[in-house]
């Protein structure tokens, strides 16, 4: 098995990953009953020393319900071959962890529209109102 790349600075070593294979339902013809193509990939987020405590806390907070006793499990069974399911599970695990440890978005700073922008908006509203008033019957006064 291979390491799972999360981002430029973080790669989960294969030694920390746990793989399980089982029979998948769905397409596959006669082979579906004989091949173990369904893949479960697990990584112990809490037990790993790979992440610093700050990132580990952020990951646990964001993954919350997905973790069972601190372990994140990804299942892949959409492909007919075990190899492609293993690749899909590894890619999904990397994406999940990358999203979980990503820095929070910057806070939006509230701003006020400029005086000119307010005046243009009000002027346009008055023009639109005048156009609509001119459409009314009896507006020929």
Provide a short characterization of the protein structure:
This protein has 3 helices and 6 strands, in the order E-E-E-E-H-E-E-H-H.
Write the layout of secondary structure elements.
Elements: E1 4-5, E2 11-12, E3 17-22, E4 38-44, H1 53-63, E5 67-68, E6 71-76, H2 82-101, H3 115-135
Description of the molecule:
This protein has 141 residues and is of the alpha+beta class. It is 37% helix and 18% strand. It is built from 3 helices and 6 strands; from the N terminus they run E-E-E-E-H-E-E-H-H. It has helices spanning 53-63, 82-101, 115-135, and strands at 4-5, 11-12, 17-22, 38-44, 67-68, 71-76. A 4-stranded antiparallel β-sheet has the order 3-4-6-5. Strands 1-2 form a two-stranded antiparallel ribbon. A hairpin with a 5-residue loop joins strand 1 and strand 2 (11-12). Helix 1 (53-63) crosses helix 2. The longest helix is centred in the last third of the chain and has 21 residues, at 115-135. The termini are far apart. The mean pLDDT is 86.
| H/I helix tally | 3
Strand content: 15-25%
Q: Which stretches are low in confidence, meaning pLDDT under 50 for 5 or more residues running?
A: none
Instruction: Calculate Rg over CA atoms.
Output: 28 Å
- Whole-number average pLDDT? 86
Q: What composes the largest sheet?
A: 4 strands, antiparallel
One letter per element, helices H and strands E, the order comes to EEEEHEEHH
Instruction: State the separation between the terminal residues, measured CA to CA.
Output: 85 Å
